[in-house]
Each structure stands twice: as structure tokens, then as C-alpha cells.
Amino acid sequence: RGPARGGAARGRQRWRADGRALRKLPVHVGLVVTEEEPSYADMASLVVWCMAVGISYVSVYDHNGIFKRNNSRLMDEILKQQQELLGLDCSKYTVEFANHDKTGQVLNCQSTLKVLSPEDGKADIVKAAQNFCQLVAQQQRTHSDLDVNMLDNLLSSTKGFPDPDLVLKFGPVDSTLGFLPWHIRLTEIISLPSHLNISYEDFFSALHHYAACEQRWGK
């Protein structure tokens, strides 16, 4: 048990140092899988690495909603890897789900995770528009009140979450397939061939690439 715990401590120090070494670190990273067969173990590794380098918000998405439907399986895998990679002395915190119907005490490092599906993207925009129309009908708002901030406030899927700074998209599809279409208009998107068997070096290389990029403004 001692050597394993020592290895976890060295890993924590390395990952935290890696995060500090970057010129800029994203606040919110979206992990978007476009492949048909998502891997719980590989996604769990990515989530734990995000937290280990100091990323505050992480969202996980696949276009079939598999991770969200099986969120307890994903959480179990994340907790297992957290214990293996980061040791058992990390403070616990509440994991949030976009639909607010399930929470669990797992993970570490004061990060927050949301597991999203397509219903949290386009459908959320439709619902926000309907809510705004209802406010207009009730004469609580006028049509001229609708602006970027108003729409942001009406969206519920990412309540309390900043917009993603970075999306890591995995798979051959040249699209984020409905991942928070409103929120990623200014987001840097980095494509990786696959999340299957992804290494920490591949993950950190993507963060390094992000740190070297200038902020995109709708480009």
C-alpha cells in the first residue's frame, strides 16, 4: 500500500506542476466523444487528468447520450481511477448532472463535473425560447429584451457553469454533434483521433496546444 500511495503522490505533484507550467489553463473543458463505442475507463482517465492539472469544470458528452444514461457506471470508474491515480486523501465534492436528478459524492480537487447528452444542447435552447415567449405573453418581458445575456440566463443545462474554453473532440467526425451549440461559439476546439487508449501525453499535448493558441472570436 505504501509504494502505491507514494506513486500517487508523485503523480499528483507531476500533474499539478504540469498545470502550473501552462501559459493558460482552461477553466471549463468539454470532452466530446463522436465515436460509436464510448469507453468508460478512457473517459474516466480524461476526467481525472483534467482535475489533476487543476481544471475547475469538466463536461462529458457523447451524441448518443450513453454516458448520461449510464452515469453511475462512469462515476464508479472515475472514483476507481481517482483512488488509483491520485490516492485516497483527496477531499470529496458533489458531482452535478445536467438534469439535476442525481448527485454523488466522488472525485476530488474542487472540480465539478456534468454529464451531458443532446437534450442538454439544442433542446435546451428551444426550451429557453419557449420560456422567453411565455414571459413576453405574460408581459413580464418585451421582444427587445432578448439578447445574449438573457438567453444565457434562460438556459438551464449549464447553470452555474462558465462556457467551455476548450473542447477536446474525439473521433473521425468533423462535428461536435450537438454539444452545447450556443455555449461553444467562442470555444477552442481541438480534435483527437480517438479517446480509446488515450495517453496522458496526448491529453497534455492538447492542453499545451490550447495554451499556445490565441482566443478565437467566432472563427
UniProtKB/TrEMBL annotation:
Its cofactor is Mg(2+). Its main location: endoplasmic reticulum. It is an enzyme of class 2 (transferase). It catalyses: n isopentenyl diphosphate + (2E,6E)-farnesyl diphosphate = a di-trans,poly-cis-polyprenyl diphosphate + n diphosphate. Pathway: Lipid metabolism; Protein modification; protein glycosylation. It is found in: Endoplasmic reticulum membrane. Its EC number is 2.5.1.87. SUPFAM superfamilies: Undecaprenyl diphosphate synthase (SSF64005). It is a multi-pass membrane protein. Keywords: Angiogenesis, Developmental protein, Differentiation, Endoplasmic reticulum, Glycoprotein, Lipid metabolism, Magnesium, Membrane, Receptor, Transferase, Transmembrane, Transmembrane helix. One of its GO terms (molecular function) is ditrans,polycis-polyprenyl diphosphate synthase [(2E,6E)-farnesyl diphosphate specific] activity. One of its GO terms (cellular component) is endoplasmic reticulum membrane. Belongs to the UPP synthase family. The active dehydrodolichyl diphosphate synthase complex is a heterotetramer composed of a dimer of heterodimer of DHDDS and NUS1. Interacts with NPC2. With DHDDS, forms the dehydrodolichyl diphosphate synthase (DDS) complex, an essential component of the dolichol monophosphate (Dol-P) biosynthetic machinery. Both subunits contribute to enzymatic activity, i.e. condensation of multiple copies of isopentenyl pyrophosphate (IPP) to farnesyl pyrophosphate (FPP) to produce dehydrodolichyl diphosphate (Dedol-PP), a precursor of dolichol phosphate which is utilized as a sugar carrier in protein glycosylation in the endoplasmic reticulum (ER). Synthesizes long-chain polyprenols, mostly of C95 and C100 chain length. This is Dehydrodolichyl diphosphate synthase complex subunit NUS1. It comes from Hippolais icterina.
